[in-house]
Amino acid sequence: MDIAREIQAQLPKELRELIRAAGEVAADLGESLYLVGGAVRDLLLRRDNLDVDLVLEGDAPSLARRLGRQNMAKVVTHPRFGTATFSSGAVTLDLATARSETYAQPGALPRVKPGKIEDDLFRRDFTVNAMAANLHPACFGELVDPYGGKNDLDLGIVRVLHPLSFQDDPTRIWRAIRYEQRLEFKLDAETERLARRDLEFMDRVSGDRLRHELERILREDEPERALRRAGELGALARLSKDLEGDAWLATKFQAARRLPADSGEKDAVYLPLLAWRLAEVQLVAFIERLRFGGEAAAALRDIPSMRTNLAALEAEKLLPSDICRLLQRHRLATIMAAVVAADSGIVRDRLTLYLSSLRFVTPSLNGDDLKRIGVPPGRKMGSLLRALKDAKLDGEVTSREMEERFVRHWIAESKR
């Protein structure tokens, strides 16, 4: 079987021409070049995937440099790892030297050495990702499938290549779940048994690698499906024992996708929603285990105080300025999660009001304007700017002229 027709029908012209040219250059060098992995899988499934990886039985950086000279393209090589990236216009190709892998111990990073295409395919995670298409001009598109990936694709199953696969790389358990749910496949019975058996090896994996797999799941179209499955298999508990991929989470994720388009990065709400029900000590352990940093860590640390403030947001008489004071120190993603997680309708309305309008309110006058009117720099100016903003939020001032009168009145009162 070959997939030349699928390549012709599904890949953009510029990309098709480039991989053909790469195959011809490799053939001139007496080497064999292959399209590998997810691109082959998705071509057979007729799913979009422009993430193209090529594997060469030879020196990939040398091929990339020659291809770059021929096409006047940008090439970045990593000779130590036998890899290269080739960029021409909007097209980017990743090239790697075919290699085999061995693992010194479960969860460790692999040791690699050059190999044949069959070795390179065997080091991959699942049979459906262990197929290749030959790019030699004489047999362009010929399918290389030594491990039965096409048959598993037809059956709709995700299957590991050997019994120690999850021990070699326990993060493959997360990838198995992700592919199963994305493709609407099923883990074959033996692969599911091995995944459950080898869950304990996940504890030996670095937090960075586990976080990377979780982030990939959260970028799926419907991440709640993979998280539900991860909960069933016991993988979710390996990140934090009290994480749940239950019906509550599924409902909240679905609601998050209905947030207004102007609410910011809606996808960022998934992580705080996943962790929303964790106690503070569990949140801290979750952050440390997966080594979250930056905005993600800030949003997670913000959850306990955000949950506390939900009660205050339910007060009967609450001015817009009160809402801002309660929310202005919180992270955007945490506030968005609270909109979805809150049980009270009035709380959700006030959170939404803050996101959609109140957080954007600023006085027309700035510090320079206040100095011109006669307010000296320092704490008093800061207090006045805050008071002016509150007045604008609460509708006490509605124009620049009213703001100036407010400031002059404030100055007069402060002198008494």
State the separation between the terminal residues, measured CA to CA: 92 Å
Supply the CATH architecture of the largest domain: 2-Layer Sandwich
CATH topology annotation of the largest domain: Beta Polymerase, domain 2
Please state the structural category: alpha+beta
Strand order of the largest sheet: 3-4-5-2-1-8-9
If you compute it from the alpha carbons, what radius of gyration comes out, rounded to the nearest whole angstrom? 28 Å
Average per-residue pLDDT, rounded, comes to 91
Q: Which spans of ≥5 residues are poorly predicted at pLDDT below 50?
A: none
> What is the number of beta strands?
11
The total count of helices amounts to 22
Which CATH class of the largest domain?
A: Alpha Beta
The global form is: elongated
- Biggest beta sheet summary: 7 strands, mixed
What level of helicity do the residues show?
Answer: 40-55%
